[in-house]
Amino acid sequence: MKRVAFTFFILVVLISCENKINSLSELKSNFYEFKERPVHSGGILNIEFNAHADKIDSVSLILNGVPFKNNTPLDSSNSTLGLNKLQMKVYIGDDYIWGETVVSVLSSFKETPIEFEVVKEYPHPVELFTEGFFFHNNKIYESAGQKGKSKLVNYSLGSSSYIQEKRQDKEDFSEGIALLNDKIYQLTYRQRKVFVYNAGSLELIETLKLPDTVREGWGMTTNGKELIVSDGTQNIFFFDEQFNLKRKIQVAGYVSIYTNLNELEFINDKLYANVWQTNYILVINPDSGVVEQYYDLTSLSETKGSDDVLNGIASYKNTILVTGKNWGRIYELAIKK
Fold first, then answer.
1. Which residues, other chains included, contact 38 with Cβ-Cβ below 8 Å and sequence gap of 6+?
2. Is the pLDDT at 210 greater than 70, yes or no?
3. According to the model, what pLDDT value does residue 178 have?
4. 301 or 210, greater pLDDT
5. What mean pLDDT is predicted for residues 277-283?
6. How many Å apart are CA 238 and CA 226, to the nearest integer?
7. What is the pLDDT of residue 337?
8. Residue 90, pLDDT above cutoff 70
9. In angstroms, rounded to a whole number, what is the distance separating the alpha carbons of residues 334 and 284?
10. Chain-wide mean pLDDT for the chain?
């Protein structure tokens, strides 16, 4: 009898193990689909289980660190545009199954194209691998990249002769620049340095460290109070003058989350961003990250290879100036009304 009972016990255990649910895939859940199958802001986040649902006792969801109820609309109170961290526990009996993923949230409004006309063309120093670009006091200020060629220059619009030139060390790859409170800030690509210059003399004042929250130095601009930085991802960071992080946004439109955000400019309370290796400039709401409009500058492109791409935006009077890496021209664009 003991041997029979023991055999029966083993058989029960084996059957129990065979029936145990060990993963979300066995429940045929859509939990891991939301990164590639985005939800528009205002849409419902609905986690489904298409197998063994009768065995589930309860489900616990946490979105961005906060408890979240299934079948709830995604809005600004519980999510942001872009990638949102989602965690789930599915309780079955005395055990649970754990999962973690991201939910992609897109804008509920379609971005619209901006009509424009070229009102004037100016020469652009073709040697400059444009990384940062702005207009101030009747001069273009430009940061040029590539190791051994990186520098900060300024010149009169319409001229290719430098008024001032500040070269960086050979190991530095210079990136975006911004003017704030009579200082010019210049990013570096992977060296994690931020050079701070006197705006008048271009004398180096100090060198700051790029915070670890930023993957790499790409584009930079200012809203007059903060330094605004891109790092090649969908993230845009807002810093004070000592590079203390104030906040960040993720950039998304109706169809996709935008990455490869490069050179930046702040114009009329909107954030303009080049999308690297494309002919597009996005017009972004700096509070929410929503892409509201865009420029398609394919007709102006001077791209001959993978590097010499559109990458320069400057506010100029009531128009904008655009150029690219090693381009021979700067284009002044007027917006058609």
1. 103, 104, 105, 106, 256, 257
2. yes
3. 98
4. 210
5. 94
6. 6
7. 59
8. yes
9. 19
10. 90
Q: Over range 305-325, report the average pLDDT.
A: 91
The residues of the chain that CATH labels 2.120.10.30 are 112-335
Domain 22-106 classified CATH 2.60.40.10?
yes
Structure-token match 């063309």, residue found? 121
For residues 46 and 68, give the distance between their C-alpha atoms in angstroms, rounded to a whole number: 11
Distance CA 69, CA 66 (A): 10
Which residues make up the CATH 2.60.40.10 domain(s) of the chain? 22-106
Let me know: does 280 contact 294? Beta carbons within 8 Å.
yes
Share of the chain above pLDDT 90, in %: 78
| CB of 252 closer than 8 Å to CB of 261 | no
Cα 26 to its chain centre, rounded Å, is 35
Q: Between residues 4 and 102, which one has the greater pLDDT?
A: 102
15 pLDDT exceeds 50?
no
CATH of domain 112-335: 2.120.10.30
How many whole angstroms separate alpha carbon 265 and alpha carbon 242?
20
Q: Output the pLDDT for position 51.
A: 81
